[in-house]
Amino acid sequence: MKTLRQSGFNAADIVSDGNKFLTGNGWLGYRGTLDEYGAKECVALNIAGVYDGVKGKWRETVNAFNPFFAVVYSGKTPLDARGENVCSHEISLEISNGTFSRKTVFSVDGAKVTLCAERFVNAARKNGLCSRITLTSDKDLTLVIKVGVDTDIWDLNGPHFKEVHTSQCGNVIEASGVTQELGYSIRTVCGYSLPPENFCNGFGTVEANLKKGKPFVLDRVAEVLCGGENYSGISYDAARAEHLKEWKRLWKLSRIEISDDERAQFALDYSIYHLLILAPKGEYSIAARGLSGQTYKGAVFWDTEIFMLPFFLHSLPECAKNLVRYRINTLPEARKKAKYYGYGGAFYAWESQDGFDACSDFNVQDVFTHRPVRTYFKDKQIHISADVAYAVLSYYEHTGDDGLMLGGGLETVLECAEFARTYSYYNHIKGRYELLDVIGPDEYHERVNNNAFTNYMFREITVRGIKLAEKLQKKYPTETEEVLKKLPDGIISKLKEWANKLYLPQPDGMGIIEQFDGYFKAEDVNVEEVRSRLKHPNEYWGGSGGVATATRVIKQADVIMLFNLFPELFSKEIQKANYDFYLPYTEHGSSLSHCAYALTACRIGNAEGAYKAFLDSAEIDLRGGGKQWAGEIYIGGTHPAASGGAWMTAVYGFGYKRKEN
Ligand code: IFM
Questions:
Q1: Nearest alpha-carbon partner for 26 in 291, 249, 329
Q2: Which long-range contacts (CB under 8 A, 24 or more apart) does 175-182 make?
């Protein structure tokens, strides 16, 4: 498997390299940064599913203290990749085993000193991460390495720790803190193969007496520990061995080989790598920007259910179960949210932090006025509940896991359907139920009526949910009755009647499904025209006054998403007509968009379009692409939904033919 390599140093790439060279193990993510970097260079050791909020700021995932700070000194001169004494510099990521390496050659007092460092987040153990520094010189030389656990860490909405303490005991340095809001106690503990001296505030020094041509090695074995967890003290070599073994297992279960196309092979390997480093190690889920930082508050979006889950279902079903369980476990929060807005059933969090909806009513900041903009993602993007139900049903389709369906799965699906039923409005004149005042996947058009994606999704999950209930009723009448008893009386018959009468927008004479009521009446301009109207590069295109709002230009695949989720419902001709119609209006302002078009392109036989969109999705983090700003809010990081979408395109698109019309 190819290694990702990059030679030379460019300060402008520091942030995007942090994403591109990310390592992780599903619980911890360590950005692709250098040992000598600090908070300013966005070093981060991100923890999945551990949240904290600072008063007046958004709650987000917590970054742990950084165990791998190190600067090598020759006298007072630091050996720093940004310095003038650098002869060569290279970083690499071994995607076959999740190891990040750097090799920098310095010119020091007439000697050539090579600094190598490798780092991995232990795939075999949730808390662990290791690093080995190797120094070699072509002359005898004494250097000093400043090492330590850096407590000055990068945060978007921090600082998250109060009561920060550092200490040293023998070879081990520890930094601990308690989070501000929820009071989690989190420690970063790091053991060194040589004891650091001169300890002060989490840092110490190790003297390196280099003998010509003889490597000097310093190992660091770190763990991030919550509450009363204990430091394991495992050796570097033992940790390395278990880590490599686990990566071998992961690739064995997930590699896809592509013949005669190195570029596509690497792009797909890289995408799968990004999914593997996020594979949850427990009943928690995956954030929209993975473990690359705190963007989007470290929250879980529909990205996981619709774009990533398929990979896990096919490759690592035990992780898929964790992802589905996460939603089942957060059903009480979804019920609360539905109730809060005045509905029944379960309205899932648009930005879920353990079920709590972290989405703000003002999720974008205007670049001109610097004022928060009222956005309606939280209260109107109701398709999230259909996405969750769809995921539960897909899990069942793949695994036949009756136990999980009786243990919360069926309840979740029916409650999501019930939510939509209570949200809907009965149009007496037209004799049908309608879903009014919603946002579909295209977030630039807020508060629209009868978004086709939303209506079809709810109809399908309702019909399939009822079938599931009937099947379970036959197999396990008592247990199923117990489940139904927890739900509103007569829920099945009410849902049946509702689903039969729910309005499903139909293709017009040209075969086009209108994205929402009135979409065709919006200004008919393409993406480039709308882009040319921007007055600021980071301006938000949607909301009440956005450049796209009154036009047909959409942020991301919307109607097209339907064809990927329900290909059997639409003929090839309809899919093609809609693909051709919507593509020129699609900005791909979301990383979820390219793969949706890629998948449909595969189905309609548009190989060229499919291949281009596949690469746009699979290479997004290799190219350092994707929007970095929504108004004044930073939204950069990795794009695991695009990685999942690339995987789907390879498997469901290029590699697999579904039964369809
Ligand atoms: O879930 C997406 C959404 O569809 C578009 N905005 C970004 C979110 C997180 O990726």
A1: 291
A2: 175/65, 175/149, 175/151, 175/202, 177/65, 177/151, 179/50, 179/52, 179/62, 180/52, 180/53, 180/54, 180/55, 181/52, 181/53, 181/54, 181/59, 182/51, 182/52, 182/53
Dist. CA 388 → ligand 1 center (Å): 15
Centre of ligand 1 to C-alpha 586, Å, is 15
Please write the tens of the pLDDT for every residue from 221-255.
999 999 889 999 999 999 999 999 999 999 999 99
Ligand 1 atom index nearest CA of 296 = 9
Identified catalytic residue from 246, 305, 443, 619: 443
Q: Is residue 31 part of a domain?
A: yes
Whether 443 sits among the annotated catalytic residues: the reply is yes
Q: Is 133 helix (H, G, I), strand (E, B) or coil?
A: strand
Query: Within 6 Å (CB) of ligand 1, which residues are found?
Result: 288, 296, 301-303, 441, 443, 590, 592, 641
Q: What is the CATH number of the domain that holds 31?
A: 2.70.98.40
Within-domain flag for 410: yes
Q: Which of 490, 505, 520 is the last residue of a domain?
A: 505
Look at residue 657 in the predicted model and tell me its pLDDT. Answer: 61
Average pLDDT on 368-378 reads: 94
Domain presence at residue 573:
no
Per DSSP, helices labelled H in 186-344 are: 236-254, 262-276, 302, 309-315, 317-329, 331-340
- Helices of type H across 400-490: 402-404, 410-423, 452-475, 477-485
Range scoring the smallest mean pLDDT among 295-309, 541-555, 616-630: 616-630
pLDDT tens for each residue of 615-648: 999 999 999 967 777 777 888 899 999 999 999 9
- The verdict on 213 and 305 lying in the same domain is no
From CA 436, how far away is CA 428, in angstroms rounded?
A: 14
The protein residue whose alpha carbon is closest to atom 9 in ligand 1 is 288
Pairing outcome for strands 86-94 and 99-108: antiparallel
Range of the domain at 106: 4-231
The closest-lying atom of ligand 1 relative to the alpha carbon of residue 555 is 5
Give one DSSP letter per residue of 435-448, joined into a string: --SB--S-TTS-SB
Mean pLDDT of all residues in 478-501: 98
User: Residue 252: inside a domain, yes or no?
Assistant: no
- Asked whether the predicted pLDDT for residue 271 surpasses 60, the reply is yes
